[in-house]
Design a protein that fits this description.
four-stranded antiparallel sheet; 190 residues; two-stranded antiparallel ribbon; globular; 8 strands; alpha+beta; endopeptidase fold (from Nostoc punctiforme)
Length: 190
């Protein structure tokens, strides 16, 4: 992902959130404790949303190590997930905001080795305790910070307490798709 310097006018762009609930042991464990429909959230900048960014596993077969990753719905971890639950949410923003969010992630990707997955933050989130640990994120916290800092999205709680399903209840998002991942990939390929 390359940085983009675009200060052009008022054209509208969209940022996408992709919520999933995989068949992995980690996802099943998180789902057991949260009893929510989705256990992971990623952010994307293209309408077909096959390339996404999040804090997740670095290797398809291992839950750890984890950190800031570029995910691909067509491959990697998602390749063998089948028709898992998936929702795609759209946030419409002006061009300046779009590029501010995209450039923030680009900057983080360049420095990705400085960031770690926050297992402690995830546990604190489950207990309802805000835990801001510099350089450490879990998926929904990362997405929340990007949205709050670059898009000025008003969050229902601190970023470190956000769950993937919390985005479903936010009025600023429009649901573009809700169904199975295989169905979404087929529809976006058409």
């Amino acid at each position: 992902m390359t940085a983009v310097n675009n200060s052009a006018g008022a054209a509208m762009k969209s940022i996408y959130l992709i919520l999933t609930r995989s068949t992995s042991a980690a996802s099943r464990l998180i789902g057991h404790f949260t009893d929510e429909p989705y256990t992971h959230v990623s952010i994307a900048f293209e309408p077909k949303t096959h390339i996404m960014y999040s804090f997740a596993r670095k290797y398809a077969r291992l839950p750890l190590p984890a950190g800031l990753v570029e995910e691909n719905m067509d491959g990697g971890f998602y390749r063998n997930q089948g028709n898992i639950p998936c929702a795609v949410l759209r946030l419409d923003v002006d061009e300046k905001t779009y590029y501010r969010a995209k450039n923030r992630i680009c900057d983080m990707l360049v420095r990705r080795e400085e960031f770690r997955y926050s297992v402690l933050g995830l546990l604190a989130c489950k207990m309802g305790i805000p835990a801001e640990i510099p350089g450490h994120y879990f998926c929904s916290q990362f997405v929340a910070e990007i949205l709050a800092d670059t898009c000025r999205v008003k969050l229902p709680c601190p970023p470190s307490l956000m769950h993937p399903a919390d985005y479903l209840d936010m009025d600023c998002f429009r649901c573009e798709f809700c169904g199975g991942l295989t169905e979404f990939l087929a529809a976006s390929a058409a």
